[in-house]
Amino acid sequence: MFASYLIGLREGLEATLVVSVLIAFLVKSDRKERLPQVWAGVGCAVALSVGFGALLTFTAAHLGHTGQELFDAITSLLAVVFVTWMIFWMRRAARALSGELRGKLTDALQMGSLAVVVMAFLAVAREGLETALLFFASVQGATATAAPLTGITLGLLTSVLIGWGLYRSALRINLTKFFTWTGLLLILVAAGIFKYGVHDLQEAGVLPGLTTYAFDVSAVVPADSWYGALLAGTLNLTPQPSVLEALAWLLYVVPTLFLFLRPQRTRTTPTPASASPAPRPSA
């Protein structure tokens, strides 16, 4: 439930920020008549995301055992790619997001009503499709189907409330720090999804070593205990992983955390040649 809540909160807040920036720009520029077009684009993006999630669920339900394991593995690996790209992209673009969106909306307003709808649709659709894919991948490792749905719903509702509070200037939060901490947690979630994708490939017979275990701590961390369920539900950590699963988790977490926590380099503007002092003439 926590992993699904985190996915809903992170992706939902990104989409909410996009929508709030667009709405605030239209309101401040006295173009409120364009608001229905923004909401139309948002509605189409939400419908596409829900339809994409339903398509994933329908496809997985009508496959055989091997085909379903392969399908789950592919969606899990794709989810890891998307969430990793999203984490690093948001780390770089969080500060400039507002200005970039306002510039795109200005161009869309000059092109016409349909351009505004398309611009709002594209701005939200990416987040919605990522949410559907990540949610589907995280659900595969869950034992109870209600908990992930409840978690992602609560996460989306929380993101809407935060976005509304920011729009009304009732909340002042440091978005850079917010995306840094949620990014760290999502890296651990993505590592668990990657581990589960490797497990699915082993179940399908694509990778060997399904019964070659790296360790067994089921006596200390029973799978049916509340803390065992918490670790499995949040980070997809199981008490008896295979060697390949454990290696996959480590091979993802270590370099990704290193790159994410590494300080960003600030580019220095080179001094023009004309600004350099002229050499003194020799005596």
Automatic annotation (TrEMBL):
GO molecular function, one term: ferrous iron transmembrane transporter activity
Family listed: Belongs to the oxidase-dependent Fe transporter (OFeT) (TC 9.A.10.1) family.
Source species: Nonomuraea montanisoli
Claim: Cell division is one of the keywords in the record: no
Coarse class of the protein's main subcellular location: membrane
InterPro entries recorded: FTR1/Fip1/EfeU (IPR004923)
Transmembrane regions: 39-64, 70-88, 108-125, 145-166, 178-198, 243-261
Pfam families: FTR1
GO CC aspect terms: high-affinity iron permease complex
Compartment(s) of residence: Membrane
Membrane topology of this protein: Multi-pass membrane protein
Keywords, ordered alphabetically: Membrane, Transmembrane, Transmembrane helix
Name of protein: FTR1 family protein
